[in-house]
Amino acid sequence: MHEYPEADILGVPRKLLKIGVLMGGPSSEHEVSLATGKNIIGNLDSTKYQPVAIKISKKGQWSLGGQIVDMPAALKSVDIVFNALHGTFGEDGRVQALMEYYNTPYTGSGITASALAMDKLRSREIFKLAGFCVPKTLKLKRGENYEARLNLFVNKVVKFPVVVKPCSNGSSVGVKIVDSPADLEPAIQEGFKLDKKVLVEEYIKGRELTCGVLDNFNNQPVAALPVTEITPVNGHRFFNYDSKYKDGQAKEITPAFVDSVIYSKAQEIALTAHQILGCRGYSRTDMIWTPGNNDVYILEVNTLPGLTPNSLLPKAAQSSGLSLARLLDAIIESSRD
């Protein structure tokens, strides 16, 4: 990590880097993105950076520091964009393509890695080739006749309960555990409201683990942060939207109290997934450990994990002795390498 002297050798104050914190956006995670952006602005080192909020409304209108502007003007007005968007548009390669087009440096993964990680089925195909355990999964497209394939899948390939989720979404928005055939089609139709592709997948019963990865950390080009175990409470069956962003809805243990072999395996999976997708800067990989056979299933890689006060990645970094300000430093530096 680079050091920033407060002044040059002549005592002239150095120029602050202007950081445009990009937040909001059209996705269902708009409010989470605003919370991430606010937390970033509040924790950037004021001796190094001059932050300015770049907000995108739910209807796609851009503003810079509270003033309505067009998109090119916003992107060209800053030294680096700190991408605090989540979900559709912000995390799927599209806004990354815009920033590449306008030659604006930005934090997080590039176009291809973002698109691959956001598409849960395509990324799982890559993970299978890498030898990882992944849930058996069926992809459905809105408007197609999928009844026969769906019946075969839920009766012959897997058994209830199953998990239904949008193919490309984040923060567990739209994810449902379905216990009976009667509830399956309504869950699928709810998923289609969020995405034109829906996944029906094998339910893996086990313990939820997650592990962050950070570039240029611990004197390594890429390194895993401590593993966290997540136990939802108050009736939540998995780490859903409410348990992620509302206080007291989940127990998060960092470092996770699991066998050392499983702990190392989870870190290795997170590291490998980050690298084979081509992620940059930081990521977080979600997994399920099944203690009965000690398999660790990879669910997905988040290329822009939340940085809200309740988010997992900053807590794992803190467990490693890395404050949020220093974590933000590391993420910004990775965009400049």
Automatic annotation (TrEMBL):
It comes from Candidatus Yanofskybacteria bacterium GW2011_GWA2_44_9. Residues 124-333 form the ATP-grasp domain. It holds the Pfam family Dala_Dala_lig_N. The lineage of its organism: Bacteria, Candidatus Yanofskyibacteriota. Its main location: cytoplasm. Transmembrane segments: none annotated. The active site is at E29, S171, S311. This is D-alanine--D-alanine ligase. Belongs to the D-alanine--D-alanine ligase family. Gene3D superfamilies: 3.40.50.20, ATP-grasp fold, A domain, ATP-grasp fold, B domain. It catalyses: 2 D-alanine + ATP = D-alanyl-D-alanine + ADP + phosphate + H(+). Mg(2+) 2 binds at E300, N302. Keywords: ATP-binding, Cell shape, Cell wall biogenesis/degradation, Cytoplasm, Ligase, Magnesium, Manganese, Metal-binding, Nucleotide-binding, Peptidoglycan synthesis. It is found in: Cytoplasm.
